[in-house]
Amino acid sequence: GHPFLAGAGMSSEPGEGDAILAEVRARIDALDDDLVDLLAQRFAAVAEAARLKRPHGIPPLTPRRFAAVLARVTARAGQRGLDPEAAQRIWETIHDEALRLEARVMAAAD
Fold it and tell me: Model-level pTM?
């Protein structure tokens, strides 16, 4: 489980703060929905890239491309007031999942 979920709550009363946080939580939920939608679009593009790579013998992992993506994303994160190291960790996870997807797509083409 997530480390913050294991007994880390400061309040012992269930639901305490719900009214205070309802508006911001609704905004966060909507943003989470947007993130899921964007990830679905991103992974659809990754699958398309995998289908294009396979007949040309291009491997799923192209380190130069990933380095360029990380550089662009971390720079943008910094410009937007986000921690570039946090953005890098998030994109490394996204990239790991993208590699798994590419491998599945390429294997399915066999």
Answer: 0.79
